[in-house]
């Protein structure tokens, strides 16, 4: 066979000179070690579950935010210099406004594709925060925050908090009447801080509200500082996800020390790439057909006007609801006024969010569990944790109603005072009720799983026994189904032990030990969960059935 035939068939001889691409690949591999890295990591196995898509939605929304935000920075002017509008939108002609508002209207009315990009950017911001919230709740309910993923939980929580702040800063840039009302709200909240509130407000706004430098200061924070920090956190988050991998739900062949799933390349990458374009397409469709934040309808901001039904984006309704339903308490002493009606809610907002940040460390301290966990919990098998998560969501929903009490009153034709008092009472009642109901539902589901594991699956077939009794025939579960139902752990609660030891010496317990014992009893003590079926119970029950069948 000739040399030309060998080359035509792709069977180049060993002494043939390498191509340019091969030389470049060899050069890069000799200095960066890319081949060995790709060989060891690109075929890494990842668990696969539909709930993981929420994290991907967050990532893709963040990428779309960066792309659309970069486009908008080319046309937005963060200046508070006053100009007279003379653009293409007739209702605003001749009106005095800031250059920031004018450039926003120009983007919406005159820049080709500007309104579409603006709306995609705003919708992507809403989806980004919503995706992070749902993603963190999925991690919380399944216990995926446990060792070794506590640091990654903190990264995700910080991203959520920064996402809310970044949304607030972006929401405030257009300087329209709606965003100006929100800024006035934020200015009042900062002023309520004792002692240093006035200085903080003066520093942030560059003088008395609304100030002349606030938008110019807010702009680099929104487009550079916060996105830069978030980009670093996203990179760190993804590195840890790649290193630790996702948690996997219990099932046959799945253990704490193995991973059952699909390889990163090509399976996972191909699915992720397709999902990115799906998310991009949905956001583009929303931006094209659903109007959001029509700044031209609100008009430029004026200190003597407030928009009717002014509402922030949904993720900030939580904080506004806290302030709206708080009684107008204030203390006047020594010539100073302390606005408790604003300061207490302003303080509670980060404290409520911080509880979710420290919960993984709190649970690890209560349980004393220092093992690594790579199997996800079914929420029903952790009734207390699931109840806490639902109570947190119930509190958020109630405060969201409080943040829009005027809109709710108008739409439902109710008294705004009645809605306000409903929210005030529900702030304390709704979380407790949600916790209790959720815990009972989880216990009910555990009880059903226990009966199913012991007796099998209901078949709907009715059988009459020789002595006249009618029973329903149950189909036995497979070993895989039995394993899935009983794979979870039910740890014993931490106990202090007897007050007096075997030598008659009275033991002294610290406050820390007492608190831990009480919390452990509430989380794992009697009534917190239904004991799962044991192999002994299963064998004894089925042995009894076999005996009765032989007698019959």
Kindly describe this structure.
By secondary structure, the protein is mainly alpha-helical. Helices cover 62% and strands 6% of the residues. It has 20 helices and ten strands. It has helices spanning 3-8, 20-32, 34-41, 53-73, 99-109, 114-142, 150-172, 177-191, 197-205, 214-244, 264-289, 295-298, 317-325, 340-367, 383-403, 405-412, 416-455, 479-486, 511-524, 535-551, and strands spanning 45-46, 82-84, 96-98, 248-249, 262-263, 331-333, 336-338, 375-376, 457-464, 470-475. It has a two-stranded antiparallel ribbon. A two-stranded antiparallel ribbon has the order 2-3. Strand 9 (457-464) and strand 10 (470-475) form a beta hairpin. The longest helix is centred in the C-terminal third of the chain and has 40 residues, at 416-455. The protein is globular, with a radius of gyration of 30 Å. The model is unreliable at 1-10 and 546-552 (pLDDT under 50). This is Cytochrome bc complex cytochrome b subunit.
Instruction: Give the distance, in angstroms, between the N- and C-terminal Cα atoms.
Output: 81 Å
The secondary-structure class comes to mainly alpha
- In DSSP terms (H or I, runs of 4 or more residues), the helix count works out at 20
Largest sheet: 2 strands, antiparallel
Beta-strand percent range: 5-15%
Low-confidence stretches: 1-10, 546-552
Number of strands: 10
Which outline best applies?
globular
Estimated helix fraction: 55-70%
Radius of gyration: 30 Å
Mean pLDDT: 86
Q: List SSEs in N-to-C order.
A: HHHEHEEHHHHHHEEHHHEEHEHHHEEHHH
Strand order of the largest sheet: 1-5
Protein name: Cytochrome bc complex cytochrome b subunit
